[in-house]
Amino acid sequence: MANEEYKELMKKYEEIYILGSISGVLTWDTETTMPRNAIQHRSKQFRYISEQTHKLSTNEQFGLLLNKLSDNDDLNKIEKRNVELLKRRYDTASKIPIDLVGEMSAQSKKTNESWKTAKSKQNFSIVMNDLKKLIELNIDYSTKLADIRGINDPYSARISERDFGFSVDQITKYFNEAKSFLIPFIQQTLDKQRDLDFEFRNRPVPKTVQVKVVEEIAKSFKYDFNRETGLGRIGEVEHPLTIGCGPQDVRITVKYGDFIQVMNATAHELGHGLHGIHKNQEYVYQPINSFGFPSLGECTSRYTENKIGNSREFQSYFFPIMQKLTNGIFDDLDFESYFRGFTRVKPHTSRMEADELTYGLHIIIRFELERDLFAGKISVEELPSLWNEKYKEYLGVNVPNDSLGIMQDLHWYNVYWAYFQGYFLGDLMGSQLHHHMNSTNPEWKTNMMEGDLSTVLNYNIENVYSKGALYDPLDLVKHVTGESLQTKYFVDYLKEKYTF
Ligand SMILES: [Zn+2]
What we know:
Helices cover 65% and strands 3% of the residues. The protein has helices at residues 2-32, 39-58, 60-69, 77-95, 98-120, 125-149, 154-162, 168-192, 207-220, 259-277, 287-290, 294-309, 312-325, 335-342, 356-374, 383-395, 421-440, 444-449, 454-463, 473-481, 488-497; strands at 234-236, 242-246, 249-254. A three-stranded mixed sheet has the order 1-3-2. α12 (294-309) crosses α17 (421-440) and α17 (421-440) runs parallel beside α20 (473-481).
């Protein structure tokens, strides 16, 4: 009986999955080739799909099946996990009052519009009242969520909604440890690189050449974007992102321009792309393959960006290839100067322009402010000045105006509350996995220096990509490395990389 009911549940989920993938194809088209004037009809298409998805995933029969199947011992490990993932989402979606969800969604759209105006006019007060309302609604939602999940802290409940298993106290502990290492270490690195010349970073590279370099990086990473043989595509957009269009179709995008940034961003999106493509095909159309966690998603992308793409090993292989492709633009450089420039550390007001070392502090600042807002310790009025103080204290930079400060990211002016922490937790997770990869497959270094990335890629495919959402993020790290998540591996990794 359980078997029949399980099959029925998966059949229903497959419909939800298909709708999601249609939305993916539409997103790809919207971002890459859609004529701008088509946006109104496109919005209707998106709305229709999300309404259908909502109906399918909250209907009574779906809930009945889930209730019958949870705690059913006839199911195997995979089936149990699929039921668990769906039930978590169903319980939230069906128990939070629909009016509150509607109000939040409307207020997010409204706030997002005022944010655009406020940002363009460099005037935070334009968006302040909308932001206040949005936060109140989010606190209300999170309090209800905490009740449903039996967690005594609303912000922890909200974090756990996206990144199951993490609590505020635990993240605070990880981030404090990382912060006390990063702040002095960044200063030491800045002192060491003071006399180095990074002029080459500003040399213009024609777009046609950039395209070739991007394609060459993708080939090295074994991301097949050939239309006849591959599962990927490379598109051009304003803001790089990866778009899943189906189990055999995960596409990355690039914004051409600043050459060094293009190479880093490509390696980042390749991580998301490979993660999507290398899900276990046995679990196709199942929640295990389609559910994700922000921390795990960023763990894969920041791993490919920093532990592969801008590693000394990969760069020593790729440097002569890049020199050749760029037709003499960088021929005067020796590898050591290039590598120091490529991995240059430069504190900045913008998260999007942050280097590997300073990135974590941008995230820690956002997490600390968000946590204190949810706890009622600080007010929306105080946000801009607190933001600026933290940037000065942690990164030593002066924020010239609120558009380049508190208003730089769309997250808080939209639906992405309790989201930022995943970006840095992913870095911590990736560092621990990398340490484990290094101790179990030490040959990865010499292989990578010869352009063979298969050791490191296979490790990730086997231990992370193919596992999908079988484990919650912290459990995955423990399962693979045998240890609970620790900041020590992140610290050790950076100390080794930035010694010069
Ligand atoms: Zn990413």
